[in-house]
Amino acid sequence: MNYYNEIKNKLIDNEVYSNVKDYSKERHKVITYFEIGRLLTEAGGKYGDNVIDEYSQKLVVEVGKKYNRRTLFRMKQLYNIFSNEKVSTVWTQLTWSHLRLLFSLETDSMNYYIKDTINKNLSVRELEFKIKSNEYERLPIETKNKLILDDEIETTDLVPNPILIRNKNNIDIATEKALHNLILEDIESFMKELGNSFAFMGSEYKIKIGDRNHYIDLLLFNVKFNCYVVTELKVTEFKVEYISQVQKYMNYIDKHIKEISNNNTIGILICKRENRFVIEYCSDERIAVREYELVWYNIDTGWCYMKIEELKELKEKVEQLIKKRNEVLEIQEEIKKLEETDEIKKYLNLLNLFKEKTTGRNTGIEKFTNKKIIDIAVSNTTITPDEEMYVYIGTYKYNNEIDIVHGSCDILVSRNDHKANYVLYQNLEAKYYETVQIPYTKADEFESTHKIIFPQNVANKQRYFYDLQSEYFETMVFESPEKAKEKVNRLIRK
Q: What's the pLDDT band for 424 if we cut at 50, 70, 90?
């Protein structure tokens, strides 16, 4: 078989078909790419892995620029992943853009997102957020077992824990009004996290009990249960009297709002417990009891940043260190002035205070730059790294020779050296000493599914990473995460 001609003809056929205004053209593309992936796999087994390089060079000229090495590699990925018998066969109903988001997932989570995308007709952007927000990982273990065994799933089984509330502006949730407004900004996402059966009826829903007006925070309607749902939001710890308030609103809705055909109203009370919001009371066991967690999510860009509490902790530590530094500098200046006077006692007292504030962990703090302070704060802050952003450190080949002085040391080689054994990367939000080692044969796959920064004309890539990370966190703390992401994005190889 002439594998190249077979691949070329299939791509030309797909190009012709793609110009037809027909809903089936996306399915035709996916099936075509799957078949090409099969041919590439077979050709690679017969002629070696270099066939992708060879074929892509010809196809770019003869068929189109988009059929470059990366695209062919993804086609091969498509075949290798979805030829697995454990992967749901309904994947063929997804678009190419949807499928690319699934390449790095495990089989069980992949099957979940495939079926969820089809059942809910998710856009590419909606699917991307679900994956980035670890929706499958947040499902109860009992639900995951049911999904694997294909057991019957209840509505409440698919409610994740914790439920994410998107906080795109990192506002301080100090009042019920602030939490209420935050949910209203993206009410659709909030209800989808609760389940697919909820409909929004109103916010601060006005009712009159006796001579007083009352306002229900959120009034929802559950289609499956055919009833209204009174939802009250509190940013304080649970109090027994909160339940009475919810029940009073439920009674009013049952008496004045609900139709005869509707079932009795359900009440939900959400209170704050430490750094999370928890359903402390629910009048119906069919409503899933879950925790709620605030995440900083930018709706416009789709970026999901570090957890709000993590960034808050980082900022607090930076502010504390800057405050200490400024205090020390002020004391130092005062000491210099007193050295020129006779106020020895005062001078000595201040000198002792200075020594007290600059010993132990704070030694030399008066000389710390903002960069140094950022580094210290980062090293003492728990940060969940963004799994996409990495800096390329180098490509290495095993060295079997032993240096009497230094011992065995692997050899740094070119990225394109096919005799290399592994490639090193460092996550931009991980500790600077943590590296990811990827086998050379898997490096292209890793780079195709992650955002990689390749230092240009840099001898010491470790130093480059250290400086870039410091600048990244400094921008995030003193300006904004979006500004930090923007700077990084300029460095990522397209």
A: very high
